[in-house]
Design a protein that fits this description.
Elements lengths: L7 E4 L1 H7 L8 E2 L2 E2 L2 E7 L2 E8 L2 H15 L5 E6 L2 E6 L4 E3 L4 E4 L1 E2 L2 E2 L4 H19 L9 H11 L1
């Protein structure tokens, strides 16, 4: 499968069993393959960023972060495939290609983000990585441990 930054994918259950990180979102909900994930290829590492449909829940969190910090770069609410979606950068994690199940398809088309949204996500993700490198971790999952486990699993 040819992975592309900016496309949306689903993950195999085996990844969650392998990683065993309670801070990752659960893979299936009500028998559906959820959540979907935006993929980023960066410095030889695949990163998945979960998407959610729970706009009201996250809108309140965004508002609280803006009040406290003056901005929110860890959660975005944007239109994807003509529906409001939540982009949970704070829940991003590394993954290997072998754990990717399939692309997200609607009406026979693989869902891709528009270039301006893709750029915004990449910029926010880069910011989050730079914060982590300076000692301020904004990620929920233990991405260092996951990266180490993935190195052993290649």
């Amino acid at each position: 499968m040819k992975l592309q930054t900016g496309c949306i994918y689903h993950i195999k259950d085996g990844f969650f069993d392998f990683v065993n990180d309670k801070n990752l979102m659960t893979n299936h909900e009500n028998g559906h393959s959820r959540p979907t994930y935006f993929v980023i290829k960066r410095d030889g590492v695949l990163w998945f960023i979960p998407l959610s449909s729970k706009v009201d829940k996250y809108q309140k969190i965004i508002e609280n972060k803006i009040k406290k910090y003056g901005r929110c770069k860890t959660i975005l609410i944007r239109k994807i495939a003509n529906k409001k979606s939540v982009i949970l950068l704070q829940n991003a994690f590394p993954i290997l290609e072998k754990y990717i199940s399939h692309p997200h398809v609607v009406n026979g088309n693989v869902i891709k983000l528009i270039p301006s949204l893709k750029k915004e996500i990449l910029n926010n993700f880069k910011f989050m990585l730079s914060m982590k490198n300076s000692g301020k971790n904004l990620f929920f999952a233990n991405i260092d441990r996951i990266l180490e486990n993935l190195k052993e699993d290649k």
